[in-house]
Design a protein that fits this description.
CATH topology: Rossmann fold
Low-confidence stretches: none
Mean pLDDT: 90
Strand order of the largest sheet: 4-1-5
Distance between the termini: 27 Å
Shape: globular
Strand content: 15-25%
Number of strands: 5
CATH architecture: 3-Layer(aba) Sandwich
CATH superfamily: Vaccinia Virus protein VP39
Helix content: 10-25%
Length: about 110
């Protein structure tokens, strides 16, 4: 409900498979996931990305779920244009901001 109240709608779901468990409870968590949200009716990407993608470890052993810049750049480049503003409301380590800057986005 929060997404739609903010003007967004889910248009996809990405799962990154990783080789290690970031947590172990009832199951070993060997994946990270994210929803792709759209505002309005943006054009579809010229080359849609695969929904299940390989995880690339960032090297930060204190934050095993930190996203590497290398896995974020394809998303940013597929779903935005140079000069666009990229929003990451969680922006824990700043990887999204770095990937956006390297891709010519704000």
């Amino acid at each position: 409900m929060a997404w739609t109240e903010a003007g967004f709608r889910p248009v996809g779901h990405i799962v990154w498979h990783n080789a290690y468990a970031s947590s172990t409870r009832f199951l070993e968590a060997r994946h990270e996931q994210a929803y792709v949200l759209a505002e309005g009716r943006p054009p579809k990407p010229v080359r849609p990305l695969e929904g299940v993608r390989a995880w690339e470890y960032s090297g930060n052993w204190t934050r095993p779920t930190e996203k590497a810049v290398s896995i974020l750049r394809p998303l940013i480049e597929s779903f935005s244009e140079p000069g666009d503003l990229v929003l990451d409301p969680f922006s824990g380590s700043g990887s999204t901001a770095v990937a956006a800057a390297l891709s010519g986005r704000r």
